[in-house]
Design goal:
The complex is a heterotetramer of chains A (637), B (102), C (178) and D (492). In chain A, 74% of the residues lie in helices and 3% in strands. By secondary structure, chain A is mostly helical. Chain A is globular. Chain B has helices at residues 4-24, 28-52, 59-89. Chain D has helices spanning 10-26, 33-57, 89-106, 114-133, 137-148, 151-158, 163-192, 199-202, 210-227, 236-243, 246-271, 273-299, 304-324, 328-359, 370-373, 375-389, 395-410, 412-437, 453-471, 473-489; strands spanning 3-5, 66-74, 79-85. A 3-stranded antiparallel beta sheet of chain D has the order 1-2-3. Chain D is globular. The two termini of chain D are 34 Å apart.
Chain lengths: 637, 102, 178, 492
């Protein structure tokens, strides 16, 4: 076994890609924490090796016939066997590549964004931790290994969201993210256990085979599928658990780009795709997922329409797009979901990285302010962001257009037209809120040339002429790369589909079948853009959206449909106020009180008995003799 | 006067009086006196058994002698304790000696 | 004359003497126990001990009776009197009686007496099968120096230790600051 | 006299190094504090090295009891000085060695009554080792009481918050436990008819009738369970932890509570397997209550050490749940959890102890921003807290995973409830981390030094152990399995 590690280039590459970042993490945490530059160098070196390996793996297995699996013993305990290994098939290779690419770009970008931060080394350590967890998760061969690294990804997310731990809101957001996803993970874990006990195996390939239906009853499959979907809902911020993601924007912007838009939150969708055949055994479960995806998508879109925070807009849009992917997958279009995941990873990372440049520049998150202080002066990020927003809105010929069309096609294939309408409505809203933001920055109502960023140590020039040029370009290059990916990725639609779907048979509903749908969708997106132009873009526009004019509606949207309030109340009143408080009192009063009562009773009776010990000899003797005499009387007579 | 039980009853009565005295007196010396009564009751018993039952009528007498010796020692110790206690308590009232109180 | 003669018949005389001795004993005992004045108590004790000595005579051992007078009355009672006279307790007011305590003590005394009486009356007393009739003081002295030698010595030692102890206890208490 | 020594008596050597350490310390004058500390360090180091060596030297292919030492001690009662190591006690021995060594290092800055402190510590640990390695009921009981006694002075003299109360409560509870154990042991001894205290002889199937097993099991379970913090009898543990000085908390929560759980396993379960199966339902209920309840109560605490104390209650509930499943996985998980929790809690307490030493407070509202003031100390705490939450690739994750898998299989409802308790435990641990370590830096703590390299060593060792067994859990599980599989298969 050991020798084959080095003889088999595939295995070596996979192991390197997945495990190298962990070594980096350990190295930084143990040795190089005091040396930020060295730490960053190590980390970027590791992730670039991972990137090279990922690309090597993808290209060398482009014509993959059947999945390659490696497994070594990790744990054996009684009936439980958890191997550690790698599963290389089309899906995992694509995911691995996405993660590697985005990680690499974000780490390079962070060189500029995080420069001078006191926790620079720590930041790179956490980034490495994330890269390790995410990549190992992507190529996990069994669901248990998947779960293990899934949890680790959650940990990395917690650490990175709370990176600015001195800010209360940041640490609070990290905690919220962890606990909420934990909630979903519990369901996921229970679902996995159900499968494990009834099917006896958690190997992904086995779970995806038809054996499952033979060994598990349909009701059981539905139950476990819904439970496992709890994990998706947690990680990908689907309906009941969606509110942590907007809060997670408290982390550094590159982190938002990497974890909370492109890769980590997509892990939920990835998991859906990973055991897609298993899920599709249960129609009821799939319908539930479809409903959840739809609700999520629409809710998040409405929220995005009213916020003024640039990162919040993209966060809501991430939630909404994740809902969209879930819809696509639940509608049965396996490829459409993954394709959208891929394109979304590109353009959403791009959006965040661009926003990061703006935030770094103007030190505000309010995009109206950014416009006011001359946001359009930053040429590269502005252009890139517009491209990405167009992709997000599904405008041709950008990547988002192709993937959205694929999902729409899938939705159109369903019997119930409600889903399609909902999808189209979502597309319209997406276009509206994306361009609301773009136009607000591009065409502000008044421009002030001196922006706040000028004072303090963080002032940067716009496009040059300053000593921060290097940093600016460090941040700009990843943008350009991502933008070009966004531009061209759409045209790889067919090769990617052949690569991915070749094995899942021809059951796919193709998006291109409905020509009318294409026009309707593009038309709706354009009308969304148009509405945004009317309200925000044209000269003399009020820059107040139609939603904001309706007071109750905008309040509802701005408060996230009061979902968070509900959780907060539930936590404060029920968990803290009632359960925890009650239990604590029980502990103090009842249990401790009972025990203390016993103690006090003992002491008290001792005290009472001590009166017998008056210390007076005569009484003692008296009792002694009386007892003696009485005993004698008793025995003799 | 020639029966064993007569003497035994006399001794018992004396003993009970001694017990009564030990218990009711509040002064230590009074208790000591009562104890002497009890010792004498025991002596009478020895002598009575010696007179009526014992195979060798010398042994009881010897025991009585020993009791007297012990009584002398006991009285000496008791008196010294009384004196010491008096110094400590400034009273001969036994009820003031309560250091063993629980 | 006859009647007087009959009165002074030896066994009647002996019985009268016995009754007197018993009365002496109990009268002394009561005086030793009841009065609150300690001097009376001691005098009662002396009377009682004398009575007991009389009983010893009736029990066939004038030697022990003499010793009783000598040791008890002559030594112990006198030492108690000395103790009272030489230290201050005598001058202090005698503590009052408390009726409940007296009652309790009387009760316990009565119970003990009942027990003893019961035991005495219920036990079938059997004299030893063969009894020697040697009551002489010579034999007593002989025994003390032969068979009971060790006990005799032990008693002497006890007395010595007791005297030393008494000195130490009272002396130690004197040295102690109050 | 029958004597069996396989080869070098390693187990006795471990005990001896504690006892000799104790004696040597007693002969050093009070004032030579550094010398006392170095002596303690050397002897605890020997102990740790021996215990780790044993763990890795154990022959897994052969299995069973190894390193056996068996000497008849009292013939008329069948008492043997009988030590042996199997898959169940090897992890515990290693845990004790590690915690002792790190505990000694943690108390390096102790200045008051140094001699007595280390002497009592060694006495305590000698008792703990004795219980873990002994295979004779009588010796187990004796060692058990030897280990309980020093807790009282250790807490009452060197402790802090309400130390007399804590010490008294702890001692009373644990003695109450002993008072249940002794009748249980004697009941078994008398009813076996074998006139021996030898566990191996007593555990032959058919020695006890089912009724006897049920009766003795509940006595022993409750008796040892009190020490293991089984649910309604847990209140001594937070109070005791809070009152105890740092290294005593470490040993106490890290090792002593395991003593209870181990006693349940070694005595109650080994000797009364049918009683075990009979009472397993009850055990599962109590354990689940403990897990959920401990987490909820922990949520409402404001004292750092109380929080850890309740987390211990919750985590020991996991051990109890594992034992209640009557499966190989459950046993594996339970033993692994004992080990993992021991190391983790030791780390938690050592970090809190450091912070308390420097800031003189352990109230959460008074702290805050400690990550800025003492990044390294905070880092250690956070690692331990994450381990407590059950983050993968840290040791306790695997233990919890195994326990929950087997619990969910055996008792679906209770298992699911316990698994849900994980969310609460995550919530309360993270809440503590957030309130204490995150947030704005406090001015008043600005001048405080961070953990120095020397004081960092014990914490590093603990972190290394947590991570090592998190990444390579099979190193641990392979050893435990050697004992648990034959044991479960041998059940009637």
């Amino acid at each position: 076994m050991t020798s084959s590690w080095f003889q088999d280039p595939t295995l070596l590459a996979a192991a390197l890609a997945a495990l190298l970042p962990f070594v980096t993490f350990a190295l930084i945490m143990i040795f190089t924490r005091p040396y930020p530059k060295l730490s960053a160098a190590i980390s970027i070196a590791a992730v670039s090796v991972s990137l090279v390996c990922a690309i090597f793996l993808l290209s060398s297995h482009w014509h993959l016939e059947k999945p390659i699996q490696y497994a070594a013993k990790w744990i054996i305990s009684g009936d439980i066997y958890i191997p550690f290994g790698f599963l290389l098939d089309q899906l995992s290779l694509v995911m691995l590549t996405i993660v590697a690419v985005i990680s690499f770009l974000v780490q390079v970008y962070s060189l500029g964004y995080m420069a001078g931060d006191p926790g620079f080394a720590r930041y790179y350590a956490f980034q490495s931790l994330f890269a390790w967890a995410m990549m190992t998760m992507s190529i996990a061969p069994t669901m248990l290994q998947f779960y293990v690294f899934w949890e680790l990804v959650g940990l990395a997310s917690y650490l990175l969201i709370g990176f600015y731990y001195e800010k209360f809101s940041a640490s609070e957001a990290g905690k919220k993210a962890f606990v909420m996803t934990r909630f979903g993970d519990i369901a996921f874990f229970l679902g996995l256990l159900l499968v494990l006990f009834n099917f006896g195996n958690l190997n992904i390939l086995d779970m995806n085979s038809v054996d499952v239906t033979a060994r598990m009853s349909p009701a059981l499959i539905t139950l476990s599928a819904i439970l496992i979907f709890g994990g998706v809902a947690g990680k990908s911020a689907q309906f009941p658990l969606l509110t942590w993601l907007p809060d997670a924007m408290e982390g550094p912007t590159p982190v938002s780009a990497l974890l909370h838009s492109a890769t980590m939150v997509a892990a939920g969708v990835y998991m859906f795709a990973r055991i897609f055949p298993f899920f599709s055994h249960s129609a009821a479960a799939m319908n539930t997922f479809l409903a959840i995806g739809t609700i999520t998508m629409l809710l998040a879109s409405t929220m995005a329409m009213v916020t003024r925070d640039i990162k919040q807009v993209w966060a809501y849009s991430t939630v909404s797009q994740l809902g969209f992917m879930v819809m696509g997958l639940a509608a049965g279009s396996y490829f459409a979901g993954i394709f959208h995941l891929t394109t979304h990873a590109g353009f959403k990372a791009l959006l965040f990285l661009c926003s990061g440049v703006f935030i770094h520049e103007f030190e505000t998150n309010d995009f109206f302010e950014m416009g006011k202080y001359g946001g359009r002066g930053l040429k590269v990020p502005m252009v890139c962001m517009t491209v990405a927003a167009a992709a997000l809105s599904g405008l041709p010929p950008l990547s988002g257009f192709f993937s959205k069309e694929a999902i729409m096609g899938g939705l159109a294939g369903l019997h119930n037209p409600v889903w399609l309408w909902a999808g189209l409505l979502g597309a319209f809203l997406t276009a509206y809120y994306s361009f609301r933001l773009i136009f607000s920055i591009l065409f502000p109502r008044k421009i002030e040339k001196t922006h706040q960023g000028e004072h303090g140590g963080h002032g940067h020039g716009h496009d040059g002429g300053h000593h921060h040029v290097g940093i600016y370009w460090v941040m700009a290059w990843p943008l350009i790369i991502l933008a070009s990916i966004t531009l061209v990725l759409g045209f790889f639609h067919t090769p990617l589909e052949n690569f991915l779907v070749g094995h899942h048979g021809g059951a796919e509903a193709h998006g291109g079948h409905h020509a009318w749908l294409l026009y309707v969708a593009v038309g709706l997106a354009l009308s969304g853009v148009g509405l945004a132009w009317l309200e925000f873009g044209r000269k003399g526009a009020s820059q107040v959206g139609f939603v904001e004019k309706i007071e109750p509606m905008s309040r509802l949207f701005a408060n996230r449909w009061y979902i968070d309030h509900f959780y907060r109340r539930f936590l404060d009143y029920f968990i803290y106020g009632i359960v925890s408080n009650l239990f604590t009192r029980n502990d103090r009063r009842v249990i401790d009180g009972g025990i203390d009562g016993i103690c006090r009773a003992t002491v008290g009776s001792g005290w009472a008995l001590s009166f017998l010990q008056s210390g007076m000899l005569q009484y003692n003797l008296m009792v002694m003799f009386a007892v003696l005499a009485l005993v004698a009387l008793y025995f003799f007579f | 006067m020639n029966s064993l039980t007569t003497y035994l009853f006399i001794a018992a009565l004396l003993f009970s009086l001694g017990i009564f005295g030990v218990f009711q007196r509040r002064s230590l010396i009074g208790m000591l006196i009562a104890i002497e009564l009890m010792l004498n009751a025991a002596s009478i018993n020895f002598m009575a058994f010696n007179r009526f039952l014992a195979p060798d009528p010398i042994v009881g007498q010897i025991y009585t002698l020993f009791i007297m010796g012990i009584a002398a020692a006991e009285a000496a110790i008791a008196l010294s304790i009384i004196v010491a206690l008096f110094r400590r308590l400034r009273s001969i009232n036994i009820e003031r000696a309560q250091e063993l109180r629980g | 004359m006859n009647s007087v003669q009959s009165l002074i018949q030896p066994h009647l005389l002996a019985q009268a003497g016995f009754a007197a001795v018993v009365v002496l004993t109990f009268a002394g005992a009561l005086i030793a126990v009841f009065p609150r004045n300690i001097l009376y108590n001691i005098l009662g004790l002396i009377v009682c001990l004398t009575g007991v000595a009389g009983l010893f005579v009736y029990l066939g051992s004038p030697f022990i009776a003499l010793m009783q007078l000598l040791i008890y009355v002559g030594a112990i009672c006198i030492s108690i009197i000395f103790a009272i006279m030489l230290s201050r307790p005598l001058h202090l007011s005698v503590p009052k009686r408390r009726l409940p305590k007296v009652g309790l003590a009387a009760g316990v005394g009565a119970v003990v007496f009942l027990m003893l009486a019961g035991i005495i009356s219920r036990t079938p007393w059997q004299p030893a099968v063969s009894r020697s009739s040697d009551w002489s003081v010579t034999t007593l002295g002989h025994y003390l120096l032969t068979r009971y030698d060790l006990v005799f010595e032990a008693i002497s030692l006890v007395l010595l230790v007791a005297i030393l102890g008494a000195i130490v206890i009272s002396g130690y208490a004197r040295r102690r600051p109050s | 006299m029958s004597m069996e020594f396989a080869n070098f008596p390693y187990l006795t050597a471990i005990l001896l190094s504690c006892v000799v350490g104790l004696l040597v310390i007693l002969f050093i004058p009070d004032e030579r504090k550094m010398l006392i500390k170095w002596v303690s360090l050397v002897f605890s180091g020997i102990t740790m090295v021996l215990s780790i060596y044993l763990f890795f030297a154990y022959d897994k292919t052969q299995g069973g009891l190894q390193f056996v030492e068996r000497v008849l001690w009292v013939k008329s009662l069948g008492i043997y000085y009988f030590n042996g190591a199997d898959g169940f006690n090897l992890p515990m021995l290693m845990l004790t060695g590690i915690v002792l060594f790190t505990g000694v290092l943690t108390m390096w800055e102790l200045e008051t009554r140094v001699k007595e402190f280390f002497a009592f510590t060694f006495l305590l640990v000698a008792g703990v080792f004795g219980v873990f390695m002994s295979m004779d009921l009588f010796f187990i009981f004796v060692w058990y009481d030897v280990s309980l006694f020093p807790m009282y002075p250790l807490i009452a003299i060197w402790g802090s918050t309400r130390k007399e109360y804590g010490a008294m409560k702890l001692t009373l509870y644990l003695l109450a436990g002993s008072a249940l154990i002794l009748p249980g042991i004697l009941y078994l001894f008398v009813n076996s008819g074998l006139n021996t205290f030898d566990i191996v002889a007593l555990m032959q199937p058919g020695t006890f009738t089912p009724f006897q097993q049920k009766f003795a099991f509940i006595l022993l379970y409750l008796g040892f369970g009190i020490l293991a913090g089984v649910w309604p009898f847990h209140t001594w543990s937070p109070v005791g932890h809070v009152a105890a000085p740092t290294s005593v908390s470490m040993i106490h929560a890290g090792v002593l509570m395991k003593l209870g759980a181990f006693g349940v396993l070694r005595v109650a379960i080994f000797l009364c397997p049918e009683g075990w199966q009979y009472w397993a339902q009850l055990m599962a209920v109590l354990a689940t209550c403990g897990i959920v309840y401990g987490a909820f109560v922990g949520l409402a605490q404001t004292d750092l050490k109380y929080v850890i104390g309740y987390s211990s209650v919750s985590h020991m509930g996991i051990v109890g749940l594992g034992l209640a499943t009557v499966t190989v996985d459950g046993l594996n998980g339970a033993v692994f959890q004992m080990f993992a929790h021991g190391v983790m809690t030791a780390l938690l307490f050592s970090s809190v102890g450091y912070i308390y030493d420097k800031t003189h407070t352990k109230m959460i509202p008074e702290l805050g921003g400690m990550s800025r003031t003492m990044p390294v100390a905070s880092g250690y705490f956070i690692v331990a807290a994450l381990a407590g939450i059950g983050v993968p690739c840290l040791a306790s994750f695997w233990a919890e995973l195994l326990v929950f898998i087997s619990a969910f299989k055996t008792y679906p409802i209770r298992g699911a409830l316990a698994i849900c308790g994980l969310v609460v435990s995550a919530l309360f641990m993270l809440r503590v981390v957030q309130r204490t370590f995150y947030g704005e830096k406090r001015e008043e703590f600005d001048h405080l030094p961070d953990v120095s390299f020397g004081l960092g060593i014990p914490r590093m060792i603990l972190v290394a152990v947590i991570v090592f067994f998190g990444l390579f859990p099979s190193v641990m599980l392979d050893v435990i399995q050697v004992a648990s599989i034959p044991f479960i298969n041998g059940l009637p």
